[in-house]
Design goal:
Four Helix Bundle (Hemerythrin (Met), subunit A); disordered C terminus; single chain; mainly alpha; 73% helix; transmembrane; transmembrane helix
Length: 329
């Protein structure tokens, strides 16, 4: 084991004072005092970005509801933006203070999705509908997205101190902890994409069969419970539950594939409706991709069960310190 130096670092990971971290109900987390200048910059820019997005989205929803009730396309995109803002807020707060590298990567992906939404919505010119907020929102979104993404990437690449505090200096445990963090993030991102897909599909309500409406109504609660099942299984390392999780995970893609195939047969629509159909297809394809990666990562996490990670990272009674971590190495 490489010894701790006297310069306040352990290898390439800075070791700060005890006040830099605190214990929470979900584990160790950074305090405001533990944030570096770079992390503060990321937090400030993210808050500005999210507040701007929330303000524009709120105005867009009000405009459609109050003055443009027939413009269902704009309303749908506004709801999608609102959903992504909620998830982005979680990724920023939880990802930064819990040092979840992959949650910041998910934030980057979600930010890009928001920008694409804004560009797409601005590009759609539905006859007789003109929302004055589209162009300012597009400009502000693009202006804030670039520095936000760059800072998120830089901050995520510097993470490592909290993982060292939690699981110690063991490279094997740190790798398993990182793999579990990736799985946890994929659970949330999969749910985010799934919710967006359902919103897009429900917008086509007049074209849905009764069976599809029932399927979608049950699908969201099922997806949320599936997320909880995966999270509990990961933390408790219950092998039979992981197999149940994987098998149940095959249900969602079946409907997504069915819907994509059906939509390809209905592309002879007017411009606005065609755009919405393409949006559903893209969201469905993204959902399938994320879902497959999630199931693969579930197998990776499953193979790490019973190797000591649960006791070090997920046991609420475990009090990990630098001295204990060094002693067990």
């Amino acid at each position: 084991m490489e010894d701790e130096g006297n310069d306040g670092t352990y290898g390439s990971v800075p070791v700060t004072s005890q006040a830099a971290t605190t214990s929470t109900v979900v584990g160790k987390a950074k305090t405001f005092a533990g944030l570096s200048p770079k992390e503060w910059a990321f937090l400030v820019v993210s808050i500005l970005n999210l507040l701007a997005a929330l303000g524009f989205t709120g105005y867009s929803l009000w405009y459609v509801v109050d003055k443009d009730k027939e413009n269902t396309v704009d309303f749908t995109f506004a709801v999608l933006l609102l959903i992504n803002i909620v998830f982005c807020t979680f990724y920023v707060v939880h990802g930064l203070f819990r040092e979840r590298e992959f949650e910041l990567y998910a934030f980057i992906a979600a930010t890009l999705v928001v920008v694409v939404y804004c560009i797409t919505e601005y590009a759609v010119n539905v006859a007789g509908h003109s929302n004055p907020i589209k162009l300012p929102r597009l400009i502000v979104s693009c202006a804030l997205a670039l520095p936000n993404i760059v800072l998120a990437w830089m901050v995520a690449r510097d993470f490592g101190f909290l993982a060292f505090r939690i699981v110690g200096a063991s490279e094997a445990l740190q790798l398993m902890y990182r793999q579990s963090a990736a799985f946890s993030t994929l659970l949330k991102f999969d749910f985010q994409v799934g919710v967006s897909f359902v919103v897009l599909v429900l917008e086509q309500g007049v074209n849905l069969t009764t069976l599809e409406i029932v399927t979608l109504s049950v699908g969201l609660p099922f997806s949320f419970l599936w997320l909880i099942l995966g999270w509990i299984t990961m933390r408790k390392e219950i092998k039979p539950l992981m197999w149940i999780f994987i098998v149940l995970g095959l249900v969602g893609p079946a409907y997504v594939i069915y819907k994509i195939v059906m939509l390809f047969e209905n592309l002879e629509e007017e411009q606005s409706e065609k755009l919405l159909i393409y949006a559903v297809i893209v969201a469905g394809a993204l959902e399938l991709l994320v879902h497959v990666i999630l199931l693969i990562q579930a197998v990776v996490v499953y193979r790490n069960f019973k190797k000591g990670l649960k006791e070090r990272a997920f046991d609420p009674t475990e009090q990990t310190s630098l001295l204990v971590a060094a002693g067990r190495r």
